[in-house]
Amino acid sequence: MWLYFFKRVLLGVLIVLVAVSLLYSMIHLVPGDPVKTVLGPRASPELQAQIREKMGLNDPLPVQIVKFIGRVAQGDLGEDVFKRKSVNIIVFEQLPHTIYLVLAGIGWAMLVGIPLGCLSAIYRNSIIDRIAGILSVSCIAIPTFVVALYSVLVFAVTLKWLPAIGAGDGESLRSYLVHLILPAFAVGLGWVGYLARLVRASMLEVMGENHVRTARAFGLPERTIVFKYVLRLAILPTITLIGMSIGILLSSAVFTEIVFARPGIGRLIYDAVTSRNYPVVMGSVLVTTVLFVVSTTIADLVNALVDPRLRTDK
Amino acid sequence: MSGDLEMPKATQMPGTWQIFLGSLKRVVREPLGAMGLVLVVFVLVSALGATWLSPYEPNKIDIKAKLQPPSAEHILGTDQLGRDTFSRVLVGGQIALKVSLISIGLALIIGLTLGLIAGFGPRWLDNSLMLLFDSVRSFPTVMFALAVVTLFGPSLTTVMIVVIVTQIPIYGRMVRSQTLALKDAEFILAERAIGAGFFRIIGMHILPNVVGPLLILASMDIPFVITIEAGLSFLGMGVRPPTPSWGTILNDGYSYIYNTPWPVIAGGIPVILTTLGFTFLGESLRDVFDPKLRKEI
Amino acid sequence: MGEGNVLEISGLNVEFSTERGRLKALRDVDLTIPRGAIVGVVGESGCGKSTMINSIIGLLAHNASVTAGSIVFEGSDLLQKSERELRDIRGNRISMVFQDPMTALNPVLSIGTQMIDIQYRDPINAEQKKARSIDMLKRVGIPDPGSRLDNYPHQFSGGMRQRIAIAMALQAEPALLIADEPTTALDATLEVQIIHRLRDLQHSMGCSILFISHHLGVIAELCDTVIVMYGGEVVERGSVRDIFHRPSHPYTEKLLECDPARIAETTRSLPTIPGEVPDLANLSRGCIFAERCDKSVDVCRQQAPVDREVGDHHWARCHLCGDQAR
Questions:
Q1: Closest partner residue to A251 among B141, B147, B258, by Cβ?
Q2: Which end of chain B has less neighbouring CB within 10 Å, N or C?
Q3: pLDDT tens digits for A83-119?
Q4: What are the distances in angstroms from CA C267 to CA B227, C31, C188, C255, C257?
Q5: Pairing of strands C76-77, C233-239
Q6: Whether the model pTM is above 0.80
Q7: Closest C-alpha to C288, from C326, C255, C250
Q8: In angstroms, what separates the C-alpha of A220 from chain B's closest C-alpha?
Q9: Strand intervals (E) in chain C
């Protein structure tokens, strides 16, 4: 089992390395001078020479990649050419906002999605189940940014119940939370659907297993069986699913932040892209990718930890 | 037990056409499938017929008629330049479908090829390809698209290339696992024993097993790709103005959301209908083709 | 209802609605379990044993329906009871032990939790419930039960898990214990231990046991009376002696013939019964065993046989047996 852990973590590291290399190498795919690509058209010749030196753009590509990885490993993600600030600092300054958004989104999705899935499984094939099923699929299908736009339209513009822009006045927690409501709603809506479906399928599977039959044969009340005997087992795949979908969550967060003009990685990237500020873009993408790989690796490891112990013989 | 040699009904293999019709019937029987099919047909028809169905030139500017709510002249109202939203929506749909079908089609073909190579080829090749696939998949697609756009500039082609590259692993992985599973199956070994050629094995055994799941994957992929295109265009990273895209319609509308809600409503509804339609259809296709549920055909 | 009978099944008919039509899973099944007796059920897979058990405890699948018959337990018909009444009886007056010990227990709850949970009906406090569980574990032969109560199922071997299952079943001192092939998944030495343990417990508690198995040796050793099932029908029933020494139904004879344990000389190939189990959705008019029976005559294929008495409390459903019809 430890061998599996080791291999899996190693694979994760390998994936990150390849991803980082890809990201870096893309600079060279652009026709023209890579320095101009990185710095954009407005850089001065002195700056160009400096960067060329620093990035070792005269070295062969594999050497460049290795050097870059070395820098990243030490925490140096490069420098923002316009603000002369370390990309590191810029990215990690904005990251918390995105993380709060993602957590809030997945939080409310769990609060609604898991009970919905439970009910669907208990009352399988009833009217509740069928409606919940269609709603779940719909939630999954509709793009997050469209949900974001429509919620602004309905709740902010038309009903004027909630604010549409920003993250609050920067002072009070309450203001921050109020500004978090609509964005979290948009990010989490798709997840309500995923979770409801997964919990339903998982519960139905567990309910068909022999130990549930035993529990029934001993006359345990249905409520005990569902909550104590079934749900506890059925919830496990959910945890791993959440871990694996951080990637999708991050993408939704990007759009949501832009629609709501919230601070965060999404906003950061958007501004950087429009100003052709590649170091910032690359740094942000790197951070999010690493987050993604880490979370999927952890999810896989949790899965393996929980699985062999339980699935003894089937 | 009958003594004659007549083949019992259950073991006669139905033709491909019967399988197709039979599946279609089962898809329509479920409300989800029926709804999905109707929506998809509706979207496809309006996209194909966009040029004929549009009452106006989608890029025709008419400042005097700007930001109007729906009326007799303009079914969905007008945008900030007085352009007819309905026409723009129709043409936008054409673009959305074109982008998704071409990108998915190419990703499918390339993925299929790579998957076969990974399955049949040497171990090291398989491992390298899988590592490459995993790495590409580790980028959140939108992030990756943004990085590429930063370097290469925004354009529809850029978006399509990003989509193709990020979707190849999905199809590649599936084909690869099917190939690996079937490669050592007894009937394949039997075929090779009688000297069957490589392409015959692929054509007769691998492909038929892979086609169903591939189609299901593709149909589930279409809404995703449409979302990506609309999303990136919304950010200004995709389609170049003045070409209409559902994303640009939404973006334009968003700037004026406090003036009039109509462009946003009009731009969002086709996205919702299309994504719902294809997702419903894909879901019911998957239910129909899921081997666990399939008892007899 | 006979005075000393814990369970009386009369004329039970159960059908399933499936895509292929109505499956007649049980037809005119009769079964009597006297108080304190051990009744064995012998039959191949698909003979209807599981359906019969599920009918007794009321856990038939949604597409199953009882079309005729009664199951009288301690004076009242179980088929007429509500779900709540049945739940009161399950694990209390009627308990079960299942075939596969590896999957029968919930993997994420300790065995103590599970054993105490099923005592939820009893008005005693937690300490007493715990003590009762520990005592029961001791009686089935689990060493050091006090500390093992907190262990999880996967920390026990298959044989231990089956003992735990028996402990759980007998905890409430039920009137009837249904054991569905409890030793099939265990090796021979374990089987012997469990069977002896079961017999001892039965003697001290005085409960009745319905013991399903296809291991004829165990049936012979443990049971007082035996029923033989085939294709959804009870083809023969009688005392253990009668069934094993004076088998009347051709199927029973064949079963005994094919039992590897009874074969006197070493041989290269074991005898089997030719043919396949019947399709319960498409039943013919005649005897259920006619196709595979080497003694069958014309009437066997044309007319379904009724139960005929072939001895004292010994019945066989065959045209060729006995002289009086029931």
A1: B141
A2: N
A3: 667 778 888 888 888 888 888 888 899 899 999 999 8
A4: 71, 37, 22, 17, 14
A5: unpaired
A6: no
A7: C250
A8: 31
A9: 5-18, 21-34, 38-42, 64-73, 76-77, 94-97, 176-180, 208-212, 225-230, 233-239, 307-311, 314-317, 324-325
